[in-house]
Amino acid sequence: MEIKKTMLMASAIALGVFASSSSTAQTPDGYPKVQANWEQCGWGGGSYYWSTAWHPTDENVIYMGSDCAGAYRSDDKGLHWKFTNNGISSYEVLCMAVSPAAPDLVWAMTSEGLCKSTDRAKTWELIPASGKKELDITCAKYTTIRSIAIDPKNADIVYAGSKTGKLFKTGDGGKTWKELPYRDARAKDEAAPAADQAKDKKSSDGACGIAVAPTNPSLVFAANTKHGVFRSQDAGATWKVLDTPKTACGVTVSPIDEKIVWAACGENGVYRSADGGNTWAAMNEGITKKVRMIEIVLHPSNPSLVYAIGNNGWSGYFFRSEDEGRKWTQNRKIQKRPDDRMPSPEVAGEKDGDTSALTNIAVNPKNPDEIFISANWTNVFSKDGGKTFECRQDEADNTCSTDIQFFGGKVYVTAMDEGLLVSENNGADWRQLIPLKWNKEISGHFWRVRIAKVGESVRIVTTSSPWDSTLNRTFRSEDDGKTFTVSTAGLPDYLPNINCMWGRSYPRSLAMDPKNPDILYLGMDGDPEPAKKLPGGGIFRSADGGKTWTRCAGQPGGLRLYYGLVVDPTDSKRLYFSSCGEGGGAWKSNDEGATWEHMFKDETWSFNLDVSPTGVVYVGSTNFWRSDDQGKTWKKLTDSKDGSTVVGIAIDPANEQRIWISRTRWDGNPYAGIFRTTDGGKNWEEITGDIPIRKQQLLRYNPETKELWSGGPGLFRLKQ
Fold first, then answer.
1. Is 34 inside any structural domain?
2. What is the number of alpha carbons within 13 Å of residue 685 lying toward its C-beta?
3. Is the confidence at residue 470, as pLDDT, over 90?
4. Residues 205 and 315 both lie in one domain
5. Among the listed residues 98, 62, 58, the one whose alpha carbon sits nearest the alpha carbon of residue 394
6. pLDDT (average), residues 508-525
7. Tell me, what's the pLDDT at 625?
8. Most exposed among 40, 477, 482, 577, judged by the fewest C-beta atoms under 10 Å?
9. pLDDT at 9 exceeding the cut of 90
10. How far, CA to CA in Å, does 63 sit from each of 9, 113, 136, 713?
11. What is the model's pLDDT at position 668?
């Protein structure tokens, strides 16, 4: 399941509302921008939310960050959410902090650096010095949990710990920074780690947690996952390493008494100091063994009441103590949890209603009995100090959709981690088709879907890669999704992993003959290994509607695929396929896959292709290309130099001159967009408009409703 974040991170989701542009504005390519008002139409939720913070004075406002969709804000205590990505530097937001002295000031740590907002996250600005090529004050999963701390009395003073383990301080709101060499306080015989040691692993040398004493801003603590807790009594000028376990993930100072300090120390549990950190005592009665404790929060007016969170694999654990940590009570139950598709039996199906992995805990400063916890998949809210929880994440869309299809007045969508869903009212409501609950042989990533009427029945074929099973597979329904059967017949009986886009083979391509729904083609990446007699991935054909598959007699010379695989609507024997890297570009077969011709080589990283109803071929690479003669000659329709690539392609079947493309970038940069031509590619205009996530990888046009749908990160639609 973690693969989703790695893969789509650079192309993923942003949070925030981008202001609609006037028709006179220009894109980096020189295309005019036109106003476009996109409508969010997904089901919300989906995978990891890594950070959260509560507004210091407005108890209705909560902020949240995700790993591939950016930042969100709720104005009703988490009941509803909206994207807040305007100006965000990356859609990976793993750490957030608010300023007690300037309540509308919010800081966010992203994979591209620190971002700052002075207007409740409506707009963001990147702090230039914090970028990867500068100080590299950037985040990493499991490593930067509470790595930003703001002076309670002076909003310009901010401490920020990086995934590299370094700690920085600014006294002017981020204009200038000074590194604080806190790790120099370690024992001389303790080996210093390499600066680049952090690689998104739980054991990395990250500055996981930073805390400033609310009653004494000169007292600062830093938690490091390899070296424990450090203390400064002079606002970071000098440091002392404290006698805690080395596996410190978080540190918290009492809002009432600066001598009371807590440390969350991973699998070593929780520790408390009553003398400002000089001595420590383990406080683990009631803490479940093998749970990695990551954060502790204290009730602001009742020092005896303490909250803590931790994880064991995908399972999340909340603990509450009413006697200063002497005894803890565990609670994992969620009321009103709507989702049975969770990533393991411990948090779904067999034990329905348990919390999934927890990431951050925030307490309402006006009513400390109210708690919000960000989490994997299901964020939770409590009105009674953690005694009971309910799910709260409506409209916080963190879905990585992989295909959109329209059929019979319905919309079908596949998504990584979440399966196949259908909407019968154009996206207002969604219903799960598969999986209906966690199942080892089913639950995981779903990639593509094709639907057709066969007699009186509706056939659905979808491709999948379960999390916990190594074999790629297809699922087939002959009753419009009421029941499904699995098929691996004819597909590889092992998992290819040579020359794959994401390190292993995924069945990301699926095509159905528009003239015969029994004929389907499936593509999965992975080169053969002749020395081991392993055939690899490739292009497979089914002649029985997806029941069984046969490897095509011939194969393209490059199999590192993303999406592109199409049956020519003018000739059922002709196939088109796109791939990346060595042997990349676009390939053509005129004989149902028996032989292949490398027809397009101008750009070798080709992520997608499509064919118009009259047989015009389009390829999406760094630029967008067109062929009117089945790939014999090509015309470049764009001239991009901004580092983005064309992934999404949609063609209006009633007017082939009207085409839409989406561009994405494969680094953390969120600046990409959606473009439209009405003259076959001679002229373009940008219609990104106010879509909150700009890195869209999926475009589909619905001629019945005259709407363009966009997905990849999230799900949106636009009247056209």
1. no
2. 16
3. no
4. yes
5. 62
6. 98
7. 99
8. 482
9. no
10. 20, 18, 24, 19
11. 67
Token pair 């994207």 is at which residue?
83
Q: Specify the pLDDT at position 190.
A: 55
Q: Under a CB-based contact definition with an 8 Å cutoff, are residues 242 and 251 in contact?
A: no
The alpha carbon torsion through 666, 671, 676, 682 (nearest 10 deg) reads -80
Domain end, chosen from 391, 426, 461, is at 391
Among candidate residues 323, 317, 325, 320, the one with its CA nearest the CA of residue 386: 320
In which residue are the tokens 């007017």 written? 655
Q: Does residue 471 lie within any of the structural domains? A: no
Between CA 44 and CA 624, with CA 412 as vertex, the angle to 5 degrees is 90
Chain-centroid distance of CA 464 in Å reads 19
Buried b (16+ CB within 10 A) or exposed e, 600-617: beebbbbbbbbbbeebbb
Among residues 364, 391, 418, the one where a domain terminates is 391
What is the distance between the alpha carbons of residues 649 and 621, in angstroms, rounded to a whole number? 11
pLDDT: which is higher, 25 or 529:
529
In a domain, 35, yes or no: no
Residue 696 and residue 648 in contact, taking contact as beta carbons nearer than 8 Å = yes
Over the stretch 95-153, which tens digit does the pLDDT of each residue have? 999 999 999 999 999 999 999 999 999 999 999 999 999 999 999 999 999 999 999 99
Mean pLDDT of 19-23: 31
Reduce the DSSP state of residue 182 to 3 states and report it. Answer: helix
- Across residues 253-277, what is the average pLDDT? 97
The tokens 């990395």 sit on which residue?
A: 204
Concatenated DSSP letters of 27-66? -TTSPBB-----EE-S--B-SBEEEEEE-SS-TT-EEEEE
| pLDDT-derived band at 340, boundaries 50, 70, 90 | low
CA–CA gap between residue 249 and residue 240 (Å, rounded): 17
Cα–Cα distance, 574 to 571 (Å, whole number): 6
When pLDDT is averaged across residues 11-18 and rounded to a whole number, the result is 31
DSSP per position, 421-475: EEESSTTSS-EEEE-SS--TTT-EEEEEEEEEEETTEEEEEEEEEETT----EEE
Cis peptide before 507 (omega within 30 of 0): no
Residue carrying the six token digits 């699995």: 486
Nearest to 376 by CA among 355, 361, 394: 355
Taking the model in full, what pTM does it have? 0.91
What distance in Å separates the CA atoms of residue 320 and residue 473, rounded to the nearest whole number?
44
Cα atoms in the Cβ-side hemisphere of radius 13 Å centred on 612 = 21
Structural domain containing residue 60? 44-391
The answer to whether residue 449 sits within a structural domain is no
What are the phi and psi torsion angles at 183 (to 5°)?
Answer: -70, -10
**Amino acid sitting at position 163:** K
Whether residues 573 and 692 share a domain: the answer is yes
The CATH code of the domain that includes 601 is 2.130.10.10
